[in-house]
Amino acid sequence: MKLSLLLAFFGIFIVQLNAQIYVQTEYIGSSDYKDINNEKTGGEGEARIFSAGAQIPFSVKMDEYNHPKVWGMALGGSYTSLKNRDIPENLSPSEILNAQISLMHLRPISKKWSVLATLGAGVYTAHTDLSKVRMKNVLGHGGVIFIWHGRDNLDLGGGLAVNTSFGYPMAFPAIYLNWRLDGRYEVNVSLMNAFEVSGGIKFSKHFKLKLVGQMNGSLALETIDGKDMMFTHQYMIGGLQPEFKIGKSFSVPIILGVSAERPAYYDERSLQAFFKAMGRENNPHFSVAPYASVAFKYQF
């Protein structure tokens, strides 16, 4: 059972107490494309990902236990350009466009517990022609998760998420984890809107250096030869991240490292196909490749 597939369909949430906007560009270098048997196909490819988003809390109030009550919204979008060579279009598209919007409400319900509810929708296509977007390119999502504040630096949660990945509402387990250590030495393990593990040193208020591991991806919902299909593109990266902070609100994190694995494949958009993919030893994927990214973040 592959973690990448679990993260693609389980409910992953984020709680943002401060307003933030960001833009990011990522580059994954060329590497061999391998089939379901983990054998080279003769094809290869690279990827460029451009993304932007905003996390906007409408209202933030603290209770007597210093836990927040938050109403907020998140907007995000990404464009992925897949530069493939000797890979047929029916195995991998040349581009992916994703755009999402979601509403979020976090409310304390006791000294140790809070409840988080989300509701949203997104458009997921293998093209950029908005006139061709249909309801089958739209995915709705929502969920409720209960969060236990175990310590000041540890939040754990679980619940249910609902989405329309298979064309109709389906419920999946939802996972929430946020553990951090702050100070000169920083450690963070989070499973919210994406999976990230990081640790490093804060040299000054303007510069920190970390080792990071992340999992990200994009999705395309298409109809091919009369069949509803889903293209999954995910990448697991690890590398060195210098981060420069300019003033109180602006930061520039840069990552230089490798893409350890990059699954990229079509499957039928059905529950049966999902469980079949979870049982596979390998998915079609690109092998190890160099990775680089730079982001610009403004928090206010």
Descriptive account of the structure:
With 300 residues, this protein is mainly beta. The chain has one domain (3-299). It contains two helices and 16 strands. The chain has helices spanning 3-9, 271-278, and strands at residues 11-12, 20-34, 40-62, 68-85, 95-108, 113-125, 138-151, 154-163, 170-181, 185-191, 195-204, 207-224, 227-246, 250-268, 285-286, 289-299. The protein has a 16-stranded mixed beta sheet that branches. A hairpin with a 3-residue loop joins strand 10 and strand 11 (195-204). The radius of gyration is 20 Å and the shape is globular. Mean pLDDT is 88; it is low at 1-13.
Compile the SSE list and pairings.
Elements (H helix, E strand, L loop, with lengths): L2 H7 L1 E2 L7 E15 L5 E23 L5 E18 L9 E14 L4 E13 L12 E14 L2 E10 L6 E12 L3 E7 L3 E10 L2 E18 L2 E20 L3 E19 L2 H8 L6 E2 L2 E11 L1
Parallel strand pairs: 1-9
Antiparallel strand pairs: 2-3, 2-15, 2-16, 3-4, 4-5, 5-6, 6-7, 7-8, 8-9, 9-10, 10-11, 11-12, 12-13, 13-14, 14-15, 14-16
| Total helical elements | 2
Q: What overall geometry do the principal axes of the alpha carbons give? A: globular
Provide the gyration radius in Å.
Answer: 20 Å
Q: Can you tell me the residue ranges where pLDDT is under 50 for at least 5 consecutive residues?
A: 1-13
Question: Main attributes?
Answer:
300 residues; mainly beta; 2 helices; 5% helix; disordered N terminus
Compose a concise summary of this entry.
It contains 2 helices and 16 strands. The protein is mostly beta strands and 300 residues long.
